[in-house]
Amino acid sequence: MTNANKSLTIAIVAGEASGDILGAALMRELKTRLPELQFNGIAGERMQAEGCASRYPLERLSVMGIVAILQRLPELLGARKRLARQWLAEQPDLFIGIDAPEFNLGLEETLKNGGILTAHFVSPSVWAWRQKRIIKIKRAVDLMMTLFPFEEAIYRQHQIRVAHVGHPLADELPLQIDREAARKRLNLPADVKVLAVLPGSRGSELQHLSAPFIAAMNVLQQRDPALHFAVPCANAKRRAQFEHSLRELGSPKNLHLFDGQSHDVMSAANTVLLASGTATLEAMLLKRPMVVAYKVGGFSYWLFKRLLKINRFSLPNLLAGRDVVPELMQADATPEKLAEAVWSQLNDAHKTREIEQLFGELHQQLRCNAAQRAADAIVALLKDHGKLA
Q: Partner of 382 for a Cys bridge, out of 64, 163, 368, 387, CB 3.0 to 4.6 A?
């Protein structure tokens, strides 16, 4: 029986907005089992609302691409070193790294060597690229929690404690999506086609994708002047960055900018144009056709291509095991190609119905009560290591 009266401290680091969502759901479940639990680390607004004291701004960790990381490297290494020093002195009962493997795995290895239990939530893409990271993961992590079913066997093969938990968003989002209700909430017209546009939550993503996405919107509006565009901005900084690009490149008519509300925006849309990443999973769970783009700096792409071991990079295609939605990488992510792919999806009702059915099936597979299963796995780890009675 878990000793609910025992006061424990968990150090926790989320690396970006999607990690903040995962962390908040996990924290809520852990607090139902261990009411006296205390959290501190790197947290976004959702995790802070659940009671995590943040020691460093989450936004500073949200970088993408080798060049962007190298530019921020001294700051990131300094932050990681300070956190490690603090936690080695404080000796929390457990450290949980949420995604952000470049930052978290090194921190986890240091803390584990210092006698602190470590868990990692969201497997790095060892099945896609840099497979040798599994060696470092084994040194750094006492428990790996995976979101997708195909990942579990990799860790068992390397004798790493693993728990497949599913994805919290699959539990949170309904199986049936009401487009009309979403449009009413956003004050969008009910009788027009709407394209949701998500150029990313990181500044580096917008740096590379804002221009081709805006140009693609302008191409599409020339084809259909009645088409509306909805852009959910991840935060105030990303909104200001995107608005700057709109002023430079020319804003299409019928453009609606929103602060957050990405789920409502995608629910209201007929099709989604978005950056590769967690948002593709969200669009899949919302049963929306999509066009996925990936674009980084030239050197980052050169390195990425040499390390990549798979032919697909978007989560819907990976989970389906085949090409379901268009993927436009790097030089292919041009305004013309993006617009053509979106146009095709906006005007193919048969394909839309097929995608909605497949995405519904994949949604069911990922519905595993993820936050509950992750919390159970963590409690079991704490018990096995004598942290709980």
A: 387
51: left (phi over 0), alpha (psi -120 to 50) or beta: left
The three-class DSSP label of residue 147 is coil
**CA–CA distances in Å: residue 174 to residues 67, 99, 280:** 39, 24, 16
Instruction: Name, in order, each residue with C-beta under 8 angstroms of 151's C-beta and a sequence gap of 6 or more.
Output: 123, 127, 162, 164
Which domain range does residue 298 map to? 172-366
Helix (H) or strand (E) holding 339: helix 335-346
Tokens at residue 316, please?
């819907």
Q: Closest by alpha carbon to 265, among 280, 245, 283, 281?
A: 283
Encode pLDDT of 17-49 as tens digits: 888 988 999 999 999 999 889 999 999 999 999
pTM as predicted: 0.70
Q: Do 14 and 138 have their domain in common?
A: yes
CA angle 144, 166, 272 (to 5 degrees): 120
- In whole angstroms, what is the distance from residue 105 CA to residue 120 CA? 8
The domain tally of the chain equals 2
Q: What angle do CA 11, 12, 14 make, to 5 degrees?
A: 160
Count CB neighbours of 353 within 10 A: 11
Q: Kindly state whether residues 376 and 281 are assigned to the same domain.
A: no
pLDDT, tens digit, for every residue of 137-176?
999 999 999 988 888 988 999 999 999 999 888 998 999 9
Q: Where are the beta strands (DSSP E) in 276-389?
A: 290-294, 327-329
